[in-house]
Write a structure and sequence with these properties.
globular; Spore Coat Polysaccharide Biosynthesis Protein SpsA, Chain A; alpha/beta; 2 domains
């Protein structure tokens, strides 16, 4: 299962690494490029569905699945043959309803092992009807299931960001989502949040999550993530200050 929006650049290569699957389903948010045509040309089934948020889109994709299991792969990810074999082995005798997969993340062309980018487990293998995503967590989705989560061993390959410009564009989008979530929860930013939260994020990324392992690359990433923590709180403050902005009912 691949969720897409204007992924013509990646979709063919992504789907090629999923040839082991019983069905390759592209769940598209009405792309305006050649994504759909390319996916259909290589034999994938395409379903189009309007995008509201990430959790809702993945839950809708699960509902559209025709099999017992769904393995989610993003268009900028590649599934090694060994991972496909591991997935097939796991679903033949499952012990859990959801499994997380580790990822090898490439940022700016470099495999990144610190600052939280490894092992970077992502819940991706779901038993249909028995597991899904928390609808209240609209970005950086959280799996919802009973029992415990299983963990796969083989890494999914993720080409996160080719350029710094691409990184900034995606992080601005994430910051807006995070600010909206906090706003809906009734969280008001305090003066100390604009200083302490970014510092905590830098410390977490660079020291706790060992961003220092990647040298200057890790230092830059840790600093960038601290900046976008600040950006989240600035956006949250703007939501509260906007004239006539709706307020959460419980505030």
């Amino acid at each position: 299962m691949v969720l897409t929006l204007n992924e013509a650049r990646h979709i063919a290569d992504c789907l090629a690494t999923l040839a082991w699957a019983d069905e390759r389903l592209v769940f598209d948010s009405f792309s305006t490029d050649e994504t759909v045509a390319i996916a259909q040309r290589v034999g994938a089934r395409v379903v189009q569905h309007p995008f509201q948020n990430y959790a809702q889109q993945r839950n809708a994709a699960l509902a559209a699945a025709q099999g017992e299991w769904v393995f989610f792969v993003d268009a900028d990810e590649r599934c090694p043959q060994s991972l496909g074999e591991e997935v097939r082995t796991v679903v033949a005798a499952p012990r859990h309803d959801v499994y997380a997969v580790p990822r090898h993340n490439y940022l700016f062309g470099r495999l990144t092992l610190g600052a939280g980018w490894y092992p970077d487990y992502q819940a991706r293998l779901f038993r249909v009807g028995r597991a899904g995503f928390d609808p209240h967590r609209e970005v950086h989705e959280v799996a919802r299931y009973e029992g415990t989560m299983g963990y796969l061993r083989t890494e999914l390959i993720h080409y996160n960001y080719d350029t710094v410009e691409q990184f900034h564009a995606k992080q601005r989008k994430y910051a807006q989502f995070e600010a909206s979530i906090l706003f809906k929860q009734g969280v008001r930013p305090r003066p100390h949040n604009f200083i302490l939260q970014p510092l905590r994020e830098f410390r977490r990324r660079f020291f706790t999550l060992r961003g220092y392992r990647d040298g200057w690359h890790g230092l830059r990433l840790s600093a960038l993530m601290a900046y976008y923590t600040l950006d989240t709180y600035r956006r949250l403050a703007a939501l509260w200050q906007a004239p006539g902005a709706p307020r959460p009912s419980d505030v």
